[in-house]
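Can't paste images in this forum, so I'm doing it all in text. The chain is below; anyone willing to post the predicted structure tokens underneath?
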Amino acid sequence: MISLTIGPAEDWFSRAVDLFGALAWPLAALVIALVFRRPLLTLLARLDELSWGDKAARFAHKLDRLESEAPPALAELDGPEIALTGDHGRFIKLLDLSPNAAVLDSWSRVEEALQGLALTHALASTDAAKASHALQQRGVLPARTVGMIGEMRSLRNAAAHNQDISVSDALRFRNLAKGVLNEIRLA
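Text version of the structure:
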């Protein structure tokens, strides 16, 4: 004989409350996602990376901003064919080894040019940041170029501290470095 026992009504009620409690947050998140679907999709399309902690803006995002702020002469230097002119053999080898190393090498060219310009104008500072600011104060470099040098220096620091950098980002950094080099050489 089979018997079926049904517990007290309180038991069924507590199970229903437990089930509702377990499903409340996932259902609320689903409703919010459906209500704000378009703004969330727009935000996700712009999202480049999720990370925890006090990370600075991602390398590519900073490059986007620098390229948009670059003067017209620098903005036209877009494309890998420009980035690979000149000492492209060394750059390609570094790029193949490590995009971070290619960024560091591109930055070293900017630093060398700044040091040379600082020596030409009888400045004793060999630090890129100090030299660029001193050159700006003397009217040799425009504030826009000095600002770009500062931003590029922070990108170089990110590359030096093993932030993952893509090959295309290294090429874009190289383009910006070549543009800044041209401005330094014309100063």
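The two ends are 101 Å apart (CA to CA). The first helix runs from residue 9 to 35.
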